[in-house]
Amino acid sequence: MRLHRFFVEEHIAPDIRLAIKDAKLLHQWRNVLRLKAGNEVILFDGFGMDHRCELASLDRGEAMCIVRESSKSAPPSTQQFFLFASLIKKERFEWLLEKATELGVAQIRPVIADRSEVKKFNLERAKDIVKEASEQSGRGSLPALYKPMELQNVFKEYTYFKTMAFDPHGELFKKDGWSKEEKVGAFIGPEGGWSARELELFRQEKIPVYSLGVSTLRAETAAVAVTSLLLLPS
Predict the structure, then answer these.
(1) Which of 11, 33, 77, 188 is geometrically suited to a Cys-Cys bond with 223, CB 3.0 to 4.6 A?
(2) What predicted TM-score, i.e. pTM, was given to this entire model?
(3) CA angle, corner 55, sides to 54 and 59, nearest 5?
(4) The CATH number fitting domain 80-231, selected from 3.40.50.20, 3.40.1280.10, 1.10.10.10, 3.30.420.10
């Protein structure tokens, strides 16, 4: 039977006893999954290893875990992909976060665009979503997730790798030329696309603007499509 897999912030070393005091995690183990002493779980701490652990004890305030076996988590993509996704409606953006995490993005930066219908962003809720997606997908680390930032300010923060933007009126995107980059970023616009002002900002920053073809995709679909094109094996 497949063991449940969980992220913990405590550093895990082989052949140790690990005390878990995370209230949410203890509640899930005790009251949702009905785990008991003697059951096993997989724990990972973001450093690329999965640890099979036996629950030596489990009560309301603490669980004592014994590391029985350690192995490498699913290897990360050889390319670090930075996703700059414009804020959209809550449910759709949460779906975007989940799928981008499963596909292996390195960082996610929400962007406040001119046409963003939503301006608020619950960072703690978003962190829970990427954590659960990382647990489910088998990746060995969580993507970095940040607070929303206005487009013009994003340019000032990320100057050390190449980026591209996507818009229905851009040149047709071809993966060749980007797959060899060690780090690459992509800007995905909101529903309704980038404004004329924002397209001019991309031009000024010498950031190429591409399209994904003749179909008009939802913002979250475009984000997942671009991530898949860059990170999944050809």
Answers:
(1) 188
(2) 0.88
(3) 175
(4) 3.40.1280.10
